[in-house]
Amino acid sequence: MLAVANQRELADDEAIKAMLLPIECALVMSSQVGTLIRSYGTKMRALISCVRVRVYQLLILLPPKSYEQMFHSLLRELVAEVTLSDDQGSQMMTAVAGLLCSGAEHTLLAPWSGGATDQALVEDQLQTLSHIGSGALENDSTCLISGSAKDVHNLWPEPDTPQAACLDAAIQAYGKVFPMIPDRQKLQITEHFADVIKNCKHAQRQQAVCCSRYLCRTSATLCYF
GO biological process: what's one of them (predicted)? Predict the structure, then answer.
């Protein structure tokens, strides 16, 4: 489906309509992550993250109007992903700051991101909340065939873990959907973010959620304009 969505001449109304049911089923499955982990063990967490990554990447490519009937369930999953609600011990930091920020905020949030040098790699690994360095081709072997042939030599940074990639994709998908919802729902989501950040007991987790929330807002602003 991602391959079709990437080609505008193939992603016509009929093709998009055929994608909606699998997307909806994937969202329903994602909402049952707690039950699945209790039934089948923690190994399900990474597998569910892989499914979520593909769903969010697909939704980023599709016109938001085509799946607006799913906004409620989708936003519930996106907000849970951004606030790290599915893993109360997580301090996962997003890596999309380098894509969404370009000014002084880039220096603060991702001073070394985007640099393909040894120094950038070392500095990223030293960041308190960075997950750079955990990348490996095994995390997503499709990167070897899904990119452009001219970029095949550029394999750094290697694909992140499914959980990290899921957070990055969720932030970008959030940016596509948030501007489309009613103001009342926007206020509810904003207040929920504030409550989650306020109630974080660990400083590093709070910092990670704050950064993800800021980048969600940045992504939404860029998509709106």
Answer: retrograde transport, endosome to Golgi
Mention every residue, 6+ apart, whose C-beta is less than 8 A from residue 65. Answer: 180
Side-chain-facing half-sphere of 72: CA atoms under 13 Å:
2
CA 78: distance to chain centroid? 8
CA distance between the termini of the chain = 27
Query: Do 131 and 92 meet the contact criterion of CB atoms below 8 Å apart?
Result: yes
Q: Give pLDDT tens digits for 25-71.
A: 999 998 888 888 889 888 888 888 889 999 999 999 999 999 999 99
pLDDT at res. 182 = 93
Domain limits for position 105? 2-149+156-224
Domain count for the chain: 1
Residue 197 burial by Cβ neighbours in a 10 Å radius (0-12, 13-18, 19+):
middle
Burial class (CB in 10 A: 0-12, 13-18, 19+), 107: exposed
Which one-letter amino acid corresponds to residue 167?
L
CA distance 150 to 30: 35
Q: Best-predicted range by mean pLDDT among 112-126, 150-164, 189-203?
A: 189-203
Instruction: Return left, alpha or beta for 84; rule: phi > 0 is left, psi -120 to 50 is alpha, else beta.
Output: left
What's the token pair of residue 203?
Answer: 């400083």
Per-residue model confidence (pLDDT) at position 59: 94
Distance CA 129, CA 175 (A): 22
